[in-house]
Amino acid sequence: MKKGIMFFALFLLVFSNSGLRAEAGSGVKITGAVGSPLEIMMSSLETLSASEVQLNDVIEDGTFKGVFEFRGVPLRDLLDLARVEKKETDFKKPIDLAILVRNNAGQMVTLSWGELFYRNKEEIILAISAKPVFPKKGIDHFESKDEYHQMIQTLNRTVGFPRLIVRSDFYTDRSIEGVTEIEVYDLRPDVQGKKSSDPYSESFEVNGTVMKPYTTDRFDEPSLRGLRAHVVGEGRGYHGTHDLRGVSLKELIMAAQPNLNLNTIFLVSASDAYRSLLSYGELFLNPHSDRILVASERDGKPIKENGKFIMVVPEDLFADREVKAVRRIEIISLEDLKR
Q: What is the mean pLDDT of residues 140-165?
């Protein structure tokens, strides 16, 4: 069945405010800043399952929870069905939206709009089935028989579906089981500034849920790191390849001694009120997080035009989350806001 026909078939099986509900434990709601709130039955998800990924399931405290091949639907495809839609806002781009995922155990984890829509969509799926990946060598090749039996028991465990799979995370703390709701959340932050063709900020502040907020207008040379990045915009395409130097966003955040959790987000805004949002997972679970920079130099020269600091996310397929003339980095806990 062709993909477009499959989407149409799924659309006929999901209903908004129609009174038709999924069976307990078998449906996922999509709510929040969307044009068509939906509740999707597991049977409908099964007709759409198109992506297969392997997940080495290890959480940040070192607990091993198995190796599995998961089959499911890219989460971004489901959000496209619900039509992500910002309503009352002074900033129409969706790059400051958060995606909150909840499960039947009361857990909540946060994704950014950018990591869903500016990365390959197979990186984040809603899985509806799994099969364990067993070691090819048998028990006779293991020194500890108990460890072998424990591993086999882990691989044979029951997995709760639907399960969020975030393959780009090194640790799987955000890959929660038994998902029941996906909320597209618009913070509607009060960001000061007027639209400008040539924004500039002499300094920026780091604040929010931190112990030591601070303001800086310069970087020390030893803290600078470099990278090369392609710049491709959604609107006008390829803007060139540039060499950038700056300080990792994670390092700037940690200097403020933040209070962090899986639902912490980072809102980076400019002097003209342009802003973009990054998730905890992007900065603290992704092995490439140190490449997210606040740059002060481009192609060997200090940034003056749209400067003097620019936040860049080089792993994004589009550069629209780039923030020119950075004025503020705000650390926000959605756990506090959504209680």
A: 89
Dist CA 202 CA 283 (whole Å): 25
C-alpha separations of 300 from 11, 199, 319 in Å: 51, 21, 20
Q: What is the pLDDT of residues 241-251, one digit of tens each?
A: 999 999 999 99
Omega before 308 within 30 of 0, i.e. cis: yes
CATH number at 232 reads 3.90.420.10
| Alpha helix ranges (H) inside 14-110 | 42-48, 75-82
For residue 118, CA distances in Å to 34, 95, 330 come to 19, 10, 22
Task: Number of helices (H) and strands (E) in the chain: give both, helices first.
Answer: 8, 20
Domain residues for 262?
204-337
CB 240 within 8 A of CB 231: yes
How wide is the angle at C-alpha 276 spanned by C-alphas 243 and 115, nearest 5°?
80
Enclosing H/E stretch for 150: helix 145-155
Quick one: 258 and 165 in the same domain? no
Report d(CA 242, CA 90) in Å as an integer: 31
The pTM of the full predicted model, rounded to 2 decimals, is 0.89
Q: Is 261 exposed, middle or buried (0-12, 13-18, 19+ CB in 10 A)?
A: middle
The number of domains in the chain is 2
